[in-house]
Amino acid sequence: MVGICGQVGGEYDVDPMVEWIGWRDDERASRYEDGDVALAASFHELLAGDQPATAGDGDVVLWVWGDVYGHGSGDDYAPRRGPPDGSAAYCADRYDEYGPSFVSELNGDFALVIHDRAAGTVSFVTDRLATRPIYHARGRDGSLVFASNAQALVHHPAVTERFDLDYLQEYLTLRRVPGVKTPLEGVEEFQPGAVTTVDLEDVSPTVDRYWRPSYQPVDRPFSELLEEFTETIDRVLSEWTDDDLDYGLLLSGGSDSRLVQAAIDQPVTAFHTAGWMSREARTARRAAEARGDEFHLLKRDEGYEQRALERNAPLLNFSSWFDQAVFQEFEDEITDDVDVLASGLNADILFSAHHLPTLSVSLGTIGNVSFPINKPIGSVDDYVAAQTEEADEPVPYLRTSRSVTDVLSENIRRVEDGIVSHGVHYGSLRDLLMYGYFFPMSSKSAAAFSRSLIQLAPYRSPFIDNRLLDLQQQVPIRYQLRRNLVKQAVAEFDAELAEIPHAGTGMSLHHSFLVDFLGKNINGFRRKHLVDESPPKPHLGHGPWPKRGELVRARSFVPETLEEREDVLDALPFLDREGALECYRAHLDGESNAPHLYSLITFLEMPVTERIARLTGENAVRERQ
């Protein structure tokens, strides 16, 4: 498990947290102590380099967790040259040339820690979306304790070990906690796109935000946008591929990863995970074969869920369910074959408005038809209602008198220059709607997918490159909803790949919007009512994920977890064990409780939950004595 941890000030050391930022023997470990500053880190060997790097005539030392691609913007952008492990040295050189302000121009997937010994400060730098989060808490001894794994913090003796029930309710209901908040009391994430500087004298932080997204669409022809998008993708991928390295690609049956496959200038090893050779898997294999790429089906067998629950729970930072760290099971198969892992993640939320509420019509037994028309959101109340549309029912096993609507409403407020949601400032309600789902990245309900990939190997997704983030803010909503830059770009790079139908829609990628929309709905009706494409078991679907509701009924990982974690359910006063069991029994009887159950067993299996439950039980015993 690559990452960092440490503390500023205080009476203790970082040893209790170190085991939470190391995963494999081939990672590069680093330790540092200087006065009131202590830090431990674990890096992938390919990216590590010599850390810390030194700048400022030796007064400044800095670490880079992740990968810096270059600096600048527009025509002034300059990619980082040199070996893959050169990020820290590169940042040190930039510091010497421009001083601390150099961070505002950085492009990449990174978090930086900078100790300026002469100034008596430690600065924590996140990239634009905080793709590599650092969590922090104020210790009882006045220290500032930090770690890339939120669960690590409660193992530090100075940190309070308690849950915040409001934010826990958000996680259990929405599968995420927006903004920088977490369900751990007093634990927050450092701001995205910001430098947080801590004064060593009084351990007081100041925050300097160097970037926040601002949606300012530009009305220009779609063909111009497509040309710029395609050229940018081509430039990004050509800059960060190296003929001396072997690349793996997580290849789905859709268009996002297929665009990466089409644009990358060398063969890749394609990986796809599924429970069977579904339509999604067959499409991915066909795409790999069309390009002459090696294809690996990583099959999820009958025991996958139980193993994934145990293996993945320590990785989670209260965003996502355990099964969304989907490739952890196949760590050896992936890392034995490739040096760098790539994916098409985040293209959907950036360029297809995937997270925006749209209009849909129920046609009864025929199904639902979704229309590419966004729902009007004119107030904070409208926004909250859209977030909780399918999730405002009480959590069956959570003892609370408040609704998740209450919690969201109390954490989103208008301010003079915009809106603050869960500690993060957005310039307007429109910006919150556009970017609140992934600014910071931990706000995503599937954040564990990409963050678990970071643990496997050096990992990149081209769509979070600054140049594409800049372009995204200019793409009109009508193009995001009713055109598709990603699909059209595949056709620009490789017409043969674009001819392969999308696994979900059944349509080739080069069609116009109207043809694609009609064909998608016709194919959906045909597949549901006219063609027998039944999977071999009810919980196996044709999409990328199993049918979780059927899976809970077919396998025993839920009741086994509830039984094994019975002591945790009993020790935490806000959990109702009988309510949890009834939730499961009701699901077996036909109710749709899989989301509640997945949230619960993910939470119960987290080491931090077990630790706090044990301490809560011990405190209760002492009080009775």
UniProtKB/TrEMBL annotation:
InterPro entries tied to this protein: Asn_synthase, ASN_synthetase/amidase, GATase_2_dom, Ntn_hydrolases_N, Rossmann-like_a/b/a_fold
An example Gene Ontology molecular-function term: asparagine synthase (glutamine-hydrolyzing) activity
Gene3D superfamilies tied to this protein: Glutamine Phosphoribosylpyrophosphate, subunit 1, domain 1, HUPs
Domain of life: Archaea
Domain Asparagine synthetase: 231-488
PANTHER family attached to this UniProt entry: ASPARAGINE SYNTHETASE, ASPARAGINE SYNTHETASE (GLUTAMINE-HYDROLYZING)
Full protein name: Asparagine synthase
UniProt source species: Halorarum salinum
